[in-house]
Design brief:
Protein name: AsmA domain-containing protein
Strand content: over 45%
Radius of gyration: 30 Å
Order of helices and strands: HHEEEEHEEEHEEEEEEEEEEEEEEEHEEE
Helix content: 10-25%
Number of domains: 1
Number of strands: 25
Organism: Lysobacter firmicutimachus
Length: 425
Amino acid sequence: MLVAAGAVLVMVLALSWVSQPSQVSAILLDRVGQSLGLELSASGASEYRLRGTPMLEVRGLVARQPGAATPLLRAERVYLSLPWSTIRAAGAVLDVERIELDAPQLDLAALQRWLESRPPSPGPLRLPSLSRGARVERGRVIGAGWSVERIAIDLPVLHPARPLRGRLDGEVVAAPLRIPFSLAATLQRPAAGRGLGLAGRVDVVAHDWRLPMRTVAGGRLHAGDDGLGLDRLRLGAQARYRAGTTDLPFVFGLAGPLRYRDGRLSLAPLGAALRGRDAVPHLDGTGRFAYAQQLELQLQGRLAEWPQAWPTLPPPLGQSRSPLPFALDYAGPADFSATAALRLQRDATVFDGRFRLPEVLEWVDAGAQGSLLPPLQGRLHTPRAEVSGAVLEGVRIEIEDDPPPTDSAPAPTREPTANAAPPNR
């Protein structure tokens, strides 16, 4: 009788303990954390339901690698519902009904350190099926010097062997730029090497200019030692550059392998094409792009022709119909406010110079009211040029940007200085 009474007492205490949602969530988080090599904790009130379709809701979730100072994941709320068949299968079946995340925050550097610490998987990655899909609200991803804010993801359904469709919204913040986006996404299958398509609106917003775009992109998912990304990325966009009274429509395309590793986003080798009218040149080029703490761009190619909206070139430069090979090199803030190096050539004439894109765009916006020459610094070498009816040979033109104007004197007009051999007539 004493043994029976003790057993009943233990059962009552155990049922009372398990009936507390916080105890159930603690057991589950501990077991899941052990299997993943993570420390999982929940600081908020938790709830669970066993009748009908079992459900677990955890608030204040924190996931970190043991000993790490920075959590790889935080979430205000995690909701999970899954059928009894999945529970009874003890991991053999991964059928889940629905997953919801409120305000999750993912640290990419911490995530990458955890992934590198995991032993290699003995078999292919197993993904769950979500019969009622998944939803993410107010998400955030933290990178090195950039972040993605206000992430919203809506997946109506997920099956490992079927196409995946959903919506993706958010805003990339890479000071001084903001890049809000709203995209529809289609994935051939949720697995590496499968095709991904994206289409929708992307805006690039700076302090005094804006670049709204309608974009279409496609590629194949990639996961390897060189990072995560897309193979054979193809991106095309219809865009408009808007600043003040300037409104320049154009289209452009990019192609190459996209990678993210160790806080660095890269597209190399890169192929690019730009088409427009007025002040927008027609160009094709190849090169490299990278972004970590700053933006890096190297692009080589050629301009098909000299844009009509640019200053008229003197003969014989203006009479030539040859394309213009160019080389562009930039390293600095993402809004291109730092100095860029440019080499431009037509036939035997070569220009080596430097410029700041915001200043050049202001000059384009000023039109006929501004200086005759764009705000450039550099040297131009040409074997022959015609100026005011005179033919100059062995011409070297040096262009220097104006110093800032003072209150007591008006700003001087940009003028080139030319050193040349005597004219032959």
